[in-house]
Amino acid sequence: MYKKFANRAKEIISEMTLKEKIGQLNQITVTPYMNDVEKLRNMIREGQVGSIILASTATAGNDQQGRIDIDMYNELQKIAVEESRMGIPMLYGRDVIHGHRVVYPLPLASASAFNDELVEKCYRNIAEEAAADGVRWTFSPMLDLCHDPRWGRIVEGPGEDPYVGAQMARACIRGFQGDNLTDKKSIVACAKHYLGYGFSEGGRDYFRTEISDITLQNYVLPAFRAAVDEGVATVMSSFNDINGIPVSGSKKYLTDILRSQLRFNGFVVSDWGAVQMLIHHGYAEDRKDCAKKAIEAGLDLDMCVRCYIENLEMLVNDGEVSIENIDTAVERILCVKLAMGLFDRPYGEKFDYDKEKHLKDARELAAESMVLLKNNGVLPLNKEANIALMGPFTHERRSLLGTWTLDGSESETPNFYEALKNALTNGKLFCTDTSRTYDNSSEISSRADIIILALGESHWTTGERHSVSDISLSKDQIELVNKMHATDKKVVGVFFCGRPMALEGVVENLDAVLYAWHSGSETANAACDILFGDTVPSGKTPVTFPRRSTHIPLYYNTTSSGQPVNGYYGQNPQWNYTDSMASPLYPFGYGLSYTKFEYKNLSADKELISLDSLKLGGKINVSVDVSNIGEYDGKEVVQLYIRDKVASIIRPIRELKGYKKVFLKLGETQTVHFELSYKDLGFYNENGEYLVEKGVFEIYVGENCLTKNIITVKVN
Ligand code: GLC
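That is the input. Now the predicted structure with alpha-D-glucopyranose docked in place:
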């Protein structure tokens, strides 16, 4: 996709000086130059700036960021285009992670919707809004799979499953980049953080990772394979090391795997300062050594620490770095700038868009992301009920937007109290004061038919540099749950969280549990849509909910081990720990509806298929009848898992290989079809070679990873 611009790029490169080439490999933020703008203008005029990041700090996710001044950025761009010798436009990038002015659910929440079309539509909206603000490149989607919800950045990714990771990668990139990268509503996407950042030891941000090549190939890479296959224009190299080799200085990861194996041909940008961090890793002597190691590894654009601009010229002139390395990096960057039409349209131009439609889409995605974890019949609520509302999130706005929200408006975000008040018809709403003492909780609960607790975690305990050691609910909230449980009223817990929290001992004291996540601008309204039944819940957990923090890591796509001790699948969980039950509180793919679905007639069109016919495109056609036997119309995420029973490298007990979200009217039955082919049944060996082996495959189709609905097919 980008290679087709190589000839034009080479023509441009042939006229460039070494300084100008290195300038293309330099990304800055304008913040340090605000007191000396003439210095900034001169740098641009001399072709020393290839890209500008629209962020003032390295952890934009939770820091207040400046608004985008499109006129200022256009004025700087004019210098690059009209006053520099080569006239190469700069590429403006910003962390438009899960929304811009209108904010959508955190990526982990969006993954809960299991609705790729809806995610794509919403990410198209995001691109349109960002482009209308002059942003041409976003550092999204984040594709770091994770087993450890203590890690604050689990909320930015697609959860624990490689198939969901791949689907989210595709949907987000299609949304951002559209069918045509030159379209004024399209922005360049960035698959990050390549690679393995989600495996940071102990969930401690930036820590080391230990990832075998088998795990890397089969678990960490699939989302990036999908991103490259979907045409992502850029990849961001991560902070972490893998097995002692920092990714941002590694030819194995940035060239051998990313380029030779995945066939990526866009450009690689470092994470903020990751080039210079090679010193702190103990992998490089000094900044000059950093620049040498990173450029030779295949890292093209240095984010914000000037290692390249201050050292590469000397390294080339001293013969320590080849000019070919420089030319290759410049070519990759120019190919993307040409592919997106930046030379033809270098300036940001504001344009109108339908914000009401975006809000409507955001509300739809938020509602489809929310997961009903428990309901003993108390939901949906009646809009004429008298409700007692209490808890720390009754009037919260900012946290509902989630971390990595740079341009959403806290003041424009409805809080839960307002949304409930707006949703009730004749019912009354009694609310405790917003202190966390809940002194009048007994009094107001006595006047209500039902109690709703607005619980959760602040966005401050999620995101970059915001991991926690304990994912339990705060003590004051647990006390409130227990206090209200002691009343004679039904109690509904609504959880506004970024990550899965450990809720053992809490959910038992609630009559219903709605996991609303941090779902963006329309979180509160969407939660009410669910609570009152205007939307029937359909979200499913894209990540396991452990009972307690001490059970981490706990994930569904684990292997069997040599004895029946996999507590996740009910195999003697008491043998895992003597002091607690090691099965999940809620497994992967779990979520309730207000209606009930029944699965019948799971079948495959063949019990036997040869490996050769699979290689020639042969398929296994699987079908199942799903019936809505409950009392509401609703959507069900029908999930298909496989298990390769015997293989040369032991395979997980379950691997998600497909899902379909189907709408079923009350009483309706649909036959849902899946196709399994060669690409679904195999795995990668440590060298990245894909193979499918003969033997028995179990096929499971059902409502979550623990479904007992099984058939088998043999590959011979
Ligand atoms: C940060 C984050 C990365 C972000 C980048 C630019 O440190 O790790 O996700 O895109 O810097 O803000």
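The chain has a mean pLDDT of 97.
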